[in-house]
């Protein structure tokens, strides 16, 4: 067998369909790859099905769901020097096993696995989801897996992704350890460790704003686009300085030769079809107060009533 293989013509160049043809890529990589990779229109697996992500969220058409309450974040405050990887499609931070979420209308606990981002050089082209047709500079995804109960059935909510828009703003010092790590992972399949510790909360908007979000059922936004994601898209964007956003496109490359900058790693918006997008219950002024503040006057009234 080995002798036979050795006598075959060298692979790739001379073949009309090189071995790499089955590998997926973003639209922007098609031309530099001489159209040898599969662009979004040709992605395989479930990618051409009808419950796909990302989608455009038309806020006026979202439906209020009072069951979509606050999340409870566990381990999000843990400071750590995370490992950061260029995986050829994005920059990915592995999150170990100690970070999880409950609440937020989810059926059970979900454990965080990794976070990654999508971006562009253009400040209005880098997010995957859009709000009323408007794209943001970047989008960050924190990917969680459902904690396995007795049943191991595959379901439409096996994965919970928390999505955060990123917009241009003032310099975000909390993001800097991640931005600085990019210089060490320019090439695909390389990784590094952050020089300083950060927590997930360091990367997010104010915790108080996280009660406002959109919810729908969809898919992974990369092949094989499995339709098993319960999406949470937060209303409040993260703010990064323009230079921090541009660092992703400038430092990272799709290819080993560093000829194609990693940018526009964004899947086009998919049709919402028959699906409904929900929004979290907008609390009135009373409900936005912490519980003790609500209880104290109530208890006082009770006491007064009792004394009478
Ligand atoms: Zn993503």
Automatic annotation (TrEMBL):
Statement: the UniProt record of this protein carries the keyword Transcription: no
EC top class, as a word: lyase
UniProt keyword list: Cell membrane, Disulfide bond, Glycoprotein, GPI-anchor, Lipoprotein, Lyase, Membrane, Metal-binding, Signal, Zinc
MF-aspect GO terms: carbonate dehydratase activity; zinc ion binding
GO cellular component: a single term: side of membrane
Membrane-spanning parts: none
Cell location: Cell membrane
Catalytically driven reaction(s): hydrogencarbonate + H(+) = CO2 + H2O
UniProt family annotation: Belongs to the alpha-carbonic anhydrase family.
Protein name: Carbonic anhydrase 4
């Amino acid at each position: 067998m080995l002798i036979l293989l050795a006598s075959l013509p060298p692979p790739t160049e001379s073949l009309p369909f090189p071995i790499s043809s089955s590998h997926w890529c973003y639209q922007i990589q098609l031309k530099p790859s001489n159209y040898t990779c599969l662009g979004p229109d040709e992605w395989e697996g479930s990618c051409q099905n009808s419950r796909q992500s990302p989608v455009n969220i038309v806020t006026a058409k979202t439906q209020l769901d009072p069951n979509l309450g606050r999340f409870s974040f566990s381990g999000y405050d843990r400071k750590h020097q995370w490992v950061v990887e260029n995986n050829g499609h994005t920059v990915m931070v592995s999150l170990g096993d100690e970070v999880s979420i409950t609440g937020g209308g989810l059926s059970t606990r979900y454990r965080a696995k990794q976070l990654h981002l999508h971006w562009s050089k253009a400040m209005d082209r880098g997010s995957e989801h859009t709000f009323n047709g408007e794209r943001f500079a970047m989008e960050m995804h924190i990917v969680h897996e459902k904690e396995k109960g007795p049943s191991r059935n595959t379901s439409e909510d096996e994965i919970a992704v928390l999505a955060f828009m990123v917009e241009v703003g003032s310099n975000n010092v909390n993001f800097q350890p991640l931005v600085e790590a990019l210089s060490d992972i320019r090439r695909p399949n390389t990784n590094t460790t952050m020089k300083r510790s950060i927590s997930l909360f360091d990367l997010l908007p104010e915790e108080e704003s996280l009660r406002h979000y959109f919810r729908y059922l969809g898919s992974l936004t990369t092949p094989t686009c499995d339709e098993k994601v319960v999406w949470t898209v937060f209303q409040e964007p993260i703010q990064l300085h323009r230079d921090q956003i541009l660092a992703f496109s400038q430092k990272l490359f799709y290819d080993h030769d560093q000829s194609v900058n990693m940018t526009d790693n964004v899947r086009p918006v998919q049709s919402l079809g028959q699906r409904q997008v929900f929004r979290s219950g907008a609390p009135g002024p009373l409900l936005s107060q912490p519980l003790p503040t609500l209880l104290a006057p109530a208890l006082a009234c009770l006491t007064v009533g009792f004394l009478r």
